[in-house]
Predict the structure.
Amino acid sequence: MTGIAVLLLAAAVAFGLSKWTRLPVIPLLMLSGVGVRLVAEAAGVDLPRELLEEMVELGLAVLVFAAGAELSPRRMRGRTRPIITVAVSQFILLGVAGIVTAHLLGYDWITALFLGCALSASSTLVVLRHLQARRQMFEPYGRLVIGVLLLQDLFIILIMVALLKSPEGAWMSAFAVVQAIGLGMLALALHKWFVPWLTRRVKLDDEELMLAALSMLFAFSGLAYLLELPFLVGALFAGFALSAFPMNGLVRGMLGSLSGFFLALFFISVGAFLVLPDSQMLVHSLIFIVVLLVVTVVFVSIIAEAVGYSTRAGIEAGLLLSQTSEFSLLLALAGVASGQISIELFSMIAVITVSTMTLTPLISRDRMAWALMKVHPRYRRGEKACESLSDHAVLLGYGRAGARMARYFQSQNIPVVVVDDDAAIIRKLIQRDIPCVQGDGSDPRTMDRAHCRQARVVICSMRRLRDAEEVLRHLRDSPAKVLVRAFELHEVEQIERAGGYPVRTARAAANKFLDWLEENMPQPEKS
């Protein structure tokens, strides 16, 4: 009990420092764990290793169970093929990149394989928390990321099972993988038939629901133990079995505070395990972090765009998937227990995991996504048709109403130019022979390429009001009429003061644009 009390005290200190300094809590929890171990060593107190191992396993089991409850395959509907393509491509590319990098740095092939597997999957725990905080679970890129996480968790589980059984021979590895697949099929059957039936037929109060959820966790963990599989396999499949609607919503609300408690125990205990890596390992950790970030962001964005997602959605997905997984820590810990890797290598994997988890909220921001979109190769072929245009219409931002706007102008024989910063949209417009300019619609150089000053009307549907204000400022002395999408009353007033025509809400915007065009646009002369 004294050991648990010390760990909880260290966790309280870490959470307090996080609130005070506004720093991410995960690295502070790890540092608190390191501090607990150093203080215990200095005081000559033995911190029981068995206790730390139990806290790591218990904490990770609850966290993975809670994350598994979010991974409903229903969110993949209609996007199965793109999700599989992105998930498999990222997993293989990152794994190969990690293995090759490790080999070039002088590690043996077994160690390189552990490092490659540690880099190959992203953190379900971190990504789901980020999507929930930003309310982006149901956005296109949010659905893509959740589907990728579900598949990659399955991949890493099977690989982890195979690696841990590899000392016993290829046959035992294959047999263990088959057992894990069988446990997954049981979870799928419960998810598809039993849990929905139970939800319809039995009304449970909060206490009974808690007991039922934990019973599922213990049952699957017990089955994993009997099959001699890692306990985390059972924890993830137990959460997945409960991920059917509406059970997943009930379980999520119930486990929210509980998962926060075990999050603290998990990272404090992992920190207490760490051996401070030497300078060479710190340099190697930095190299692996750079490889992870570059490979994930570049290739996920390219592959996502190739399978039909917008450039922005691809970049956001790549940024959000740029970290290693909690499974990486368990894989490394199991590798240490089996004698396949050293405790120093476990510490290096922990440094990579915690560093990338900490970086995720910092790099997956709108500002970073916009910055990366600006360095995306620009398609210029659509600009050739803009060179001689005048008295035309310009759409600054294609959006949902863009196709309807373009069809209207074409039906009225009015030339139209589309300006958008999304390369995927520009590529489709070029294929349809619609004049277009790729770039930031608020940039004066982009507006000049679209000849906005010579336009009859400029329709601005960009997200940020300050972008619209830049457009109005640049076109203040031109004859072009500027219509701007607005959502709030104060935005309407600002647009009117700047000389624009405000239109409230996106749906009303499309209708009002058309009404205004019909009233103000002269009809083409009949030949």
